Amino acid sequence: MISLDLSGKRALVTGSSSGLGAAMALMLAKAGAQVAVHYREEAKAADKIVQEIAAIGGRAQAFSADIGDGDAVSRLFADVDKALGGLDILVNNAGMDGTRELCAASNPEHWERVIAVDLLGPYRCAREALLRMIKQKNGVILNITSVHEFIPWEGYSAYTSAKAGLSMLSKTLAQEAAEHNIRVLALAPGAIRTPINASVWQDPSSLQDLEDKIAMGRLGEPEEIARVVAFLVSDLASYMTGTTVCVDGGMLIYPNFRHGG
Length: 261
Prior knowledge:
The chain contains eight helices and seven strands. By secondary structure, the protein is an alpha/beta fold.
């Protein structure tokens, strides 16, 4: 029997008070990891995830920080050190789409905020994690990108740029860290049924339009992403580094072309 065992591992999942991040935190805890549940403002939601983990016999603690603030990131990792005694797994999940704005009419401050959270934030978190993992000669960093590291998205140039940049950051860090027995990967989710996109999947016409873009014809569920996350950060994926794993129901195979170009 193949066992996915994260017992003894200490994991930080950024943006894990709800949605995809919450599913990831719960899945890692089920696999045996001690989990740092990160949130920015949603303290009650984060505490709820901690309680759910405790209810299944796991260990977790909530931590607050604005990932877009460099000083806050440094404090976050110092707090995790004190509580968990170190870090073995970092999942850079926190992010934002930002305001839909065509580039010519966009507010540069809005653009910069998305980059600060979606690209600079993961960079800062990865840097802090690497400082620790290099010393212990072991660790895994998993960056959550999006199918929009590959697919343009009108009105969201900051988001797509950040996700594409995060993909290349993952590859470069993997190259730098391999000699220290540290793996760095990216995971690109497709359309997943979470509260943040409820306005899409609760509307029949917009849901149909989205499902037509997916070869499997349905949205993914958070647990389907979380299971792949648990695999990638485990020793079952010990020979994987420097690549993006797409979990998108076939969105990237352009299903509209199945009947010809």
